[in-house]
Automatic annotation (TrEMBL):
Domain (DYW): residue spans on this chain: 571-663
InterPro entries tied to this protein: DYW_dom, E2_motif, E_motif, PPR_At4g14850-like_plant, PPR_rpt, TPR-like_helical_dom_sf
Keywords, alphabetical: Repeat, Transit peptide
GO biological process: RNA modification
Gene Ontology molecular-function annotations: RNA binding; zinc ion binding
Source species of the chain: Oryza punctata
Top-level division of the source organism's lineage: Eukaryota
Pfam families referenced in this protein's UniProt entry, alphabetically: DYW_deaminase (PF14432), E_motif (PF20431), Eplus_motif (PF20430), PPR (PF01535), PPR_1 (PF12854), PPR_2 (PF13041)
Residue ranges of PPR repeats: 158-192, 224-254, 255-289, 325-355, 356-390
The protein's name: DYW domain-containing protein
């Protein structure tokens, strides 16, 4: 492409004075390469360009990118001047759009000002070109400023002007200017104009003023698909998802954009199952999805751990020829990583020809949380060699990798390099990662000192991370301090009491264990209900502790009894240290036996083939007893089990876990 443009430019610069004749058909309807070559042929044939030639040519050149394309744009501009077309409104407007769309606002404005004296002080078409060109380059602030300048120049705004500037107001959330433009619209007499009405609704919805958006929408005599979708999207952004769904269900017809807005709305508020149900309904209604739809669908699969549905989504995209752009690729990497299928995530990564920093960050995070820390760090260095600059999230992945591989010195090095080498200020999340690195290595005093020296106030996650490390390493002194600070921030945090009780039990401080349990009873602290999800044949099954609502409950509990018998015969002894209710030992054991992840694993043993990996998503940190039990299940039944809990991944295989019993 670059060579072809350069060759065309050389030909263009060498053309002598052509003969007269209009022939815009030489350059219209083509890409930049063909358009420039057509223009060269036109000049070589002695045909003189007219007012309609340059707009077509400049439109094609404006769509091209790169240094060569910019040079060709400059050469075409020179020909506009050469043939005396610089004051022609159509040619000048095309030049303005070309420059503004490339982000060269100064050149665009210079063309406008050069043409204005001859065209009566500023033809609306040229101002419209400037505003829309800035919109195309994402410089919405310049769009708004250009509209203000247009008003000062007393140029007559048209419906096209209002559509462009209101769109810019919405994108930059400039409600004040949007309201002022709305007033001008009412005074101008352009209404009723459906394009303007649609963009007004969209502007108010984008700016979060749903009352104003609704009043305009409700008063429209004719509502287009765009206006319906704008209100639905605005309601979703404001958290009114159920109201958005009610409006969606009343749409006379729905296009892909409307379906995508609704699916993405569910994803944004964490209602991932509703998102997938809506997508299935979309398929039932025979509406074709696009790449934007699929990013939302794949994201929902990632959060649910729905690997089968995610796989189907990838096949669906291939079958329908949906564009596999960098956004879809990044979403697939994230989905496979969060489903514990890191090899497939790596396959997607290797097949991606275009990678941005989010691509690299996604695979680094995926490798890190799946226990492949050394590969994550190697990939980070590959990212640097590819001249991609890391961001805050990238360093979360790198520090997490150091945690899983026990690389304390490397973790410190990466943490310090954030500010020194990359000018990135560590957030509380990065400090949490560093505390985890130090805590896992048993460097609890250094971890505590790091917390004390933090430039921001430590949150409950920071203290919880230190407390968990103290539980593993049996450091009651620092652990008690961490628990005290944690409970100051979150007095009803049941996990803090569980970890503290566990730490005391490990140190045989049974009096303190009883004291903690008494505090829990007196304060009436309730443990957050555990919930485990598992996908089987494309259907998400959800279990809570002691759950008997599942259609197969009778078979599940019967199978669980057999599994527990096998475990006991293999030496399993229930670990009741995390059961904080005052009941008999037998009752405590029953509480453990019926934990949600044990029910989910048992369901999988009943319903899946022996070669299928069991994948579970748990909403809480996994308890000690379930961890021990599933390790033994993986050995006795020869099954690989992957559990994603609140803190990390656990890959159980042959009786061991990837977390090395630290979580």
């Amino acid at each position: 492409m670059v060579r072809a443009l350069s060759r065309a430019r050389s030909l263009l610069d060498g053309i002598p004075h052509p003969r007269r004749r209009a022939a815009s058909s030489y350059v219209s309807g083509h890409g930049a390469e063909d358009a420039v070559a057509g223009y060269v042929r036109m000049l070589s044939g002695g045909v003189r360009p007219d007012a309609y030639t340059f707009p077509s040519l400049l439109k094609a050149v404006a769509a091209a990118r790169g240094a060569a394309a910019e040079a060709i744009g400059g050469a075409v501009h020179a020909h506009v001047v050469k043939f005396g077309m610089e004051s022609n409104a159509h040619a000048a407007s095309s030049l303005i759009v070309m420059y503004a769309a490339r982000g060269d606002g100064a050149a665009a404005r210079a063309v406008l000002e050069a043409a204005c004296p001859v065209s009566g002080g500023g033809a609306p078409v040229m101002w419209n070109a400037l505003i829309s060109g800035h919109n195309r380059s994402g410089q919405f602030g310049l769009s708004c400023c250009s509209f203000v300048d247009m008003a000062r120049a007393s140029a007559m705004a048209t419906a096209v002007t209002y559509v462009s500037v209101l769109s810019a107001c919405g994108k930059r959330k400039d409600l004040l200017l949007g309201m002022q433009v709305h007033k001008r619209v009412l005074e101008s007499g352009v209404l009723p104009d459906q394009r303007v009405e649609n963009v007004l609704v969209d502007m108010y919805a984008e700016c979060g003023d749903m009352d104003a958006a609704w009043v305009l929408f409700d008063g429209m005599k004719v509502r287009s698909m765009a206006s319906w979708t704008s209100v639905i999207s605005g309601l979703v952004r404001s958290g009114q998802v159920d109201r958005a769904r009610d409006l969606f269900d009343h749409m006379p017809e729905r296009d892909t954009i409307a379906w995508t807005a609704m699916i993405d709305g569910y994803v944004q508020v964490g209602r991932f199952r509703d998102a997938l149900e809506t997508f299935r309904y979309m398929q039932f209604c025979k509406v074709r999805a696009d790449e934007f739809t699929m990013v939302s669908v794949v994201t929902a699969c990632a959060q649910l751990g729905a690997l089968e549905t995610g796989e189907w989504a990838r096949i669906y995209m291939g079958r329908l020829g949906i564009k596999m752009d960098v956004f879809v690729g990044n979403a697939l990497i994230d989905m496979y990583s969060k489903c514990g299928s890191i090899e497939r995530a790596l396959d997607i990564f290797k097949d991606m020809h275009n990678r941005d920093k989010f691509t690299w960050t996604a695979i680094i995070l995926g490798l890190a949380v799946n226990g492949r820390g050394e590969e994550a760090i190697d990939t980070f260095y590959r990212m640097l060699r590819a001249l991609q600059a890391p961001d805050e999230v990238t360093f979360v992945g790198v520090l997490t990798a150091c945690t899983h591989t026990g690389l304390v010195d490397k973790g410190r090095e990466f943490f310090l390099s954030m500010t020194k080498a990359y000018n990135i200020s560590p957030t509380v999340v990065h400090y949490g990662c560093l505390i985890d690195v130090l805590g896992r290595a048993g460097k609890l005093k250094e971890a505590l000192d790091t917390i004390i020296e933090m430039p921001m106030k430590p949150n409950s996650t920071i203290w919880g991370t230190l407390l968990a490390a103290c539980r593993v390493h049996g450091n009651s002194e620092i652990g008690e301090l961490a628990a005290e600070r944690l409970l100051e921030l979150d007095p009803d945090n049941s996990t803090a009491y569980i970890l503290l009780s566990n730490m005391y039990a490990k140190s045989n401080r049974w009096k303190d264990v009883r004291r903690i349990r008494q505090i829990i009873m007196e304060k009436g602290i309730k443990k957050e209900p555990g919930c485990s999800m598992i996908e089987m044949n494309g259907i998400i099954h959800e279990f809570v502790a002691a759950d008997r609502s599942h259609p197969m409950s009778k078979e599940i509990y019967s199978k669980l009894e057999k599994v527990l018998t096998d475990l006991r015969n293999a030496g399993y002894v229930p670990d009741v240290t995390e059961v904080l209710v005052e009941v008999t030992e037998e009752e405590k054991q029953k509480v453990l036996y019926w934990h949600s992840e044990k029910l989910a694993v048992t369901f999988a043993l009943l319903t899946s083939e022996s070669n299928i990996i069991i994948r579970i998503v748990k909403n809480l940190r996994m308890c000690l007893d379930c961890h021990s039990a599933i390790k033994l299940i993986s050995k006795l039944y020869g099954r690989e089990v992957i559990v994603r809990d609140r803190t990390r991944f656990h890959h159980f295989k042959h009786g061991s876990c990837s977390c090395k019993d630290y979580w």
